[in-house]
Design goal:
Blueprint (H helix, E strand, L loop, with lengths): L1 H47 L5 H21 L11 H22 L4 H9 L1 H13 L8 H15 L8 H23 L5 H22 L9 H24 L2 H4 L5 H14 L5 H28 L3
Helix pairs in contact: 1-9, 1-11, 2-3, 2-8, 2-9, 3-4, 3-7, 3-8, 4-7, 4-11, 5-7, 6-12
């Protein structure tokens, strides 16, 4: 009887690290799928931006999201849709809408990689937005990635006596508003269900898109419809994939993978539009990615210290 017991005792411990490795790889796979979906959707939006006004791209995106959420909505009771935090939902929803609107506008003016990178610089701005929103203290260590990120962004923007291009400015606003959306989502997650946060985000963004969509309304070429539909579906698909990624692996594993989206965007921009960054912009890109990864690392260290388990 002692031999099987001893065998179990010897073999049990290695199974846990193996299971963790498998979970991590699943999380990485879903995170990579998220980056691929987001990057290809951005390429689709850039492709149709020559034929479809940005307000209509944004309106079509949130219209499709609302249609896809309808089966969930009809199963809810008024009590399930109740929230006590309308102000936060409104700010988070408007910030999320403005993020996509400025992102699509930037895509129509600058390269896919530059627009994607400026948007993905959001984690660098999160501590600043959190301080403005709720006066959350910024640890001294977090100022290093913030300053590094600003340096990298400056190299990408390459301002001159005339300032920066409108496309780069829109991309920067996209990153700032995405950071505000992330902070708002984090605050709401303490009180509201994820499905409710998503629903109000889509609903508020649709309401923001509607007036501009009506004003700029024009017939949409038929060839653009598959791209617009994919763009709308990609929002909910990316959210589902990212949620699955976090269900398998820790944020310290999943978050850095988002920067692979910049690499994918760079490849797509090169293959489709022959866009190649100059040396200065490439150095700035590497600095921003490094600053983003450092931000994730510092946040993870803080979480580990506060939760030893």
């Amino acid at each position: 009887m002692s031999r099987p017991d001893a065998l179990v005792e010897v073999q049990s411990p290695p199974s846990q690290p193996l299971r963790t490795d498998i979970q991590n790889w699943k999380g990485i796979g879903f995170a990579l799928a998220t980056a691929l979906v987001a990057s290809t959707a951005a390429a689709a939006s850039k492709w149709v931006s020559t034929a479809v006004p940005v307000p209509l791209i944004t309106l079509s995106q949130y219209s499709i999201c609302l249609i896809l959420l309808t089966p969930w909505l009809v199963r809810q009771t008024p009590r399930h849709l109740t929230t006590q935090h309308w102000r936060t939902h409104l700010i988070r929803g408007f910030a999320g809408w403005l993020c996509f609107f400025t992102y699509f506008s930037a895509l129509s003016k600058i390269s896919l990689m530059e627009a994607g990178l400026l948007r993905n610089a959001a984690p660098i701005f999160v501590p600043l937005i959190a301080w403005l929103w709720s006066r959350a203290q910024i640890p001294i260590a977090h100022w290093l990635p913030i300053l590094l990120g600003l340096l990298g962004i400056t190299l990408i923007l390459q301002p001159n006596v005339d300032g920066i291009s409108s496309g780069h400015a829109l991309g920067l606003i996209s990153g700032l508003t995405l950071a505000a959306s992330m902070v708002g989502t984090r605050i709401l997650s303490h009180t509201d269900r994820p499905s409710l946060i998503l629903f109000y985000y889509v609903l508020i963004s649709f309401a923001c898109s509607l007036p501009l969509g009506i004003y700029y309304w024009e017939p949409v070429p038929l060839w653009t419809l598959p791209y617009l539909i994919f763009n709308g579906v990609s929002v909910l698909l990316a959210i589902w994939l990212y949620t699955k990624a976090y269900s398998y692996a820790k944020p310290s594993v999943v978050s850095p993978i988002s920067y692979f989206g910049v690499v994918i965007a760079g490849l797509l921009g090169w293959l489709i539009w022959q866009h190649l960054p100059n040396t200065i912009a490439l150095v700035g890109t590497l600095i921003v990615i490094s600053a983003g990864l450092l931000t994730v690392y510092l946040s993870t260290q803080k979480t580990n210290c506060s939760d030893p388990s």
